[in-house]
Amino acid sequence: MLEEVKKNDSIRQKHLEELGIHFLRFTNVQIKENLEEVIHSIKEKIQTLNNQTTKQNSTPLGAEGFVIPAIDIIDGKCVRLTEGDYAQKKIYNENPLDVALEFEDAGLQRLHLVDLDGAKAGAVKNWKVLETIASKTKLTIDFGGGIKTEKDIQIVFDSGSALATVGSIAVKDEALFVSWLQQFGAENFLLGADVKEEKIAIGGWLETTDIWIYDFIEKYIKHGVQQIFCTDVSKDGRLEGPSTELYKNIITKFPDLHFIASGGVASLDDLKMLKNIGCSSAIVGKAIYEGRINPKSLKGL
Q1: What stretches of 34-167 show up as alpha helix (H) in DSSP?
Q2: How far apart (Å, rounded) are the C-alpha atoms in residues 200 and 173?
Q3: Would residue 194 show up in a list of annotated catalytic residues for this protein?
Q4: Which residue of 1, 74, 95, 179 has the lowest C-beta tally within 10 Å?
């Protein structure tokens, strides 16, 4: 008799799951002796379902454009580093707004804005530059560098950024970053994964960890992150071509991820290749500033 009841219960559950109703089963002992764990399991299930719904029903912010031009800021000026080395700095423009307006005039829709002072100091520094560009253009901006606290995130959003770019905190303090994803919405974050030999680098590329890039990505996809960009630091700023093999591996492992390539792009052919291997977008910086790629040639890519 008991077995028949269990069988019928199982059949009913299967039918209800087909209608989108989900179940979690707990024994009376679990509820009585481990209520906190039961509640935690329920919250985790709800978060997982919310993440799945978000992924199914929304398009990542700024997903309409393949090319994302980059502006790196030190002392309020537009610069580029080579291999992430602050000693190898080159100033390209005293006024980042002029550069952003040029990108917008060329028909580009997104902007990757990096506060290198903030990345080094561990606190957002160049938010005034963000505020100016956001108020004077219609670009969809992601801003990163120095985001370490909830206050930093609020400054970034209040200053006009559509996305907060986070890297180091996601490595150093998973619990804190996950709390931000839950508070502000995972869809409003761009996760940065700076890499040296497939291992995560942090702190403006000044520190290398033992964390494998694939484990890092997998973990945060489960927390609802929709967009991730990966920069091979050994390629960044060298104009020697992007890390296509690394990107192919990532795309193969995570085919549904909105994956953004970054670092090493030197020509339009590089961008076409990245698009052909399945990258959702590509960040371009030094190749534009060195005159190898004309921003006006990027609109139709």
Answers
A1: 35-57, 96-105, 116-121, 127-136, 150-158
A2: 14
A3: yes
A4: 1
At 39, list the tokens. Answer: 């509640």
Catalytic residue among 117, 142, 152, 194: 194
**Euclidean distance between CA atoms 242 and 262, whole angstroms:** 7
Give the count of beta carbons closer than 10 Å to the beta carbon of residue 120. Answer: 16
Looking at the whole model, is its pTM more than 0.85? no
Token pair listed for 268: 């339009």
Quote the radius of gyration of the chain (alpha carbons, Å). 22
**How far, in Å, CA of 154 to CA of 134, rounded?**
15
Per the structure block, which two tokens stand in for 220? 């945060």
Rounded CA-CA distance 164/187 in Å is 10
Strand partners, 112: 70, 142
> CA separation (Å) from 144 to 52, 122, 232?
26, 11, 17
Residue-by-residue pLDDT tens, the chain, 301 positions: 546 645 556 665 665 565 567 777 778 878 888 888 868 777 776 766 665 555 444 677 777 789 999 999 999 999 987 766 788 889 999 999 999 999 999 999 999 999 999 988 989 999 999 999 999 999 999 999 999 999 999 999 999 999 999 988 999 999 999 999 999 999 999 999 989 889 998 755 567 789 999 999 999 999 999 999 998 887 766 788 899 999 999 999 999 999 999 989 999 999 999 999 999 999 999 899 999 999 999 977 8
- Please give the DSSP secondary-structure letter assigned to residue 296: G
Which residue is catalytic, options 72, 115, 152, 232? Answer: 72
Residue 28 sits at φ, ψ, to 5 deg, of -60, -35
Q: Does 256 qualify as catalytic in the annotation?
A: no
- Give every CB contact of residue 106 below 8 A, 6+ residues apart in sequence: 294, 295, 296, 298, 299
Q: How far apart are the C-alpha atoms of 125 and 159, rounded to whole Å? A: 12
Fill in the DSSP letter of residue 59: P
